[in-house]
Amino acid sequence: MHNLKYLDDDDDDECDSGMELRVFASLEVLILDLLPNLEGLEKVERGDVFSCLSILKIAFFPKLELSCLPSLKDLDVSGPNIVLLRSISSLCGLTKLTLHGGNRVTSFPEGMFRNLTCLQTLYVTDFPDLKVLSNEPLDLALEDLYTCNELESLLEKMRKGMQSL
Prior knowledge:
Blueprint: E1 6-8, E2 29-33, E3 40-42, E4 55-59, E5 74-78, H1 82-87, E6 96-100, E7 121-125, E8 144-147, H2 156-160
């Protein structure tokens, strides 16, 4: 499936009978691996295509950008690209974020954590060049931070509510 660009590439919300088409409406867990040309889950963002998706695990997508997934609670990303990292800021309901294999990532995009106010657990592993999680104040509900990076500092506000580091 090397040429797959979108899981739902329908441009039209309705099928020929006039009924609304709801693809993947009941899907709760999605695991995707090695789809090198995947650009997005939906070609046209409609908001209700992945309305029940709560767990998403993705690995090695050089072109993927995530759209708004309001029910997503747990995101696990291997080999993230900068575009995908930037799109994480739209996932406001995340409570757990796991990132690994960021060999070329030297810093996270500005604003990446800004809207993740429900984030409780953050795993960041195998980012050998990453020194700081964020250069901006964060308003996270972060309780647990797991990292094996060469981090040089954590913001004071980030450390206040943590139960484990």
